[in-house]
Specification:
Distance between the termini: 9 Å
CATH superfamily: Aldolase class I
Helix content: 25-40%
Mean pLDDT: 98
Number of domains: 1
Bound molecules: D-xylitol-5-phosphate, zinc ion
Strand content: 15-25%
Low-confidence stretches: none
Structural class: alpha/beta
Number of helices: 8
Order of helices and strands: EHEHEHEHEEHEHEHH
Strand order of the largest sheet: 1-8-7-6-5-4-3-2
Shape: globular
Largest sheet: 8 strands, parallel
CATH topology: TIM Barrel
């Protein structure tokens, strides 16, 4: 098993010390910086918008993995790309024209991801799996950090891994929500490639060491 890609989630950072916390991620062995965008409609919370993404961009050279938990993402992907996104992920639940949305993101020069909520069947992804760079499997209901990991995720990841392999897709499997040392190894065994971690990293006494711990699995 290759070493996982680690994407600390800025949502769990201290927004009053955002530069400090982004620089910590930049120094660490993390691979991507996960940035959660919430619109208060698709999910019952707000997080941050374009100016904050621009600010994060100024303090790290690592790829920004922007997770759009918003309605009508097609209206906003270009602005997030201009703000510095390297990867943009949209939710299957809000995209009536998902294939078009993926092409739009790629045409902007970004890697394209699709996120899927805990209740959404994987079959809804079958016909776009060869077109995407990653699938973000939500292991909590999106909208908040520090929620409890949903155990059904293991079975879902195994099933998704098989679909990806059978189709010859190169899509990475990213896990988002409640990831910690308690579940990370089992997630990797199930087929995960990328681990997002918010609370686990930022509530640690030594966040950089927490990132290193996940990376070393
Ligand atoms: C949840 C977000 C996650 C969140 C993960 O809606 O998409 O990226 O920041 O945070 P933890 O790791 O604390 O569950
Ligand atoms: Zn996220």
């Amino acid at each position: 098993m290759a070493s996982p890609l680690i994407a600390p989630s800025v949502l769990a950072a201290d927004f009053g010390n955002l530069q400090r916390d982004v620089e910590m991620i930049d120094r660490s062995v993390a691979d991507w910086v996960h940035v959660d965008i919430m619109d208060g409609t698709f999910v019952p919370n707000f997080s941050m918008g374009i100016p904050v993404v621009q600010a994060i961009r100024r303090h790290t050279k690592k790829p920004l993995d922007v997770h759009l938990m918003i309605m009508t993402p097609e209206h906003h992907v270009e602005a997030f790309r201009k703000a510095g996104a390297d990867r943009i992920c949209v939710h299957v639940e809000v995209c009536a024209n998902l294939h078009r949305n993926i092409q739009q993101i790629k045409a902007l020069g970004c890697a394209a991801g699709v996120a899927i909520n805990p209740h959404t069947p994987l079959i809804s992804l079958e016909n776009i799996l060869v077109d995407v760079d990653h699938i973000c499997v939500m292991s909590v209901n999106p909208g908040f950090g520090a929620q409890t990991f949903i155990e059904n995720t293991y079975a879902k990841v195994k099933q998704l891994k098989k679909m990806i392999t059978d189709l010859g897709s190169s899509a990475l499997i990213e896990i988002d929500g409640g990831v910690s040392m308690k579940n990370a190894s089992a997630l990797l065994s199930a087929g995960a490639d990328v681990l997002v971690a918010g609370n686990f990293v930022f509530s640690a006494a030594d966040p950089e060491a927490a990132i290193q711990g996940l990376k070393a699995l």
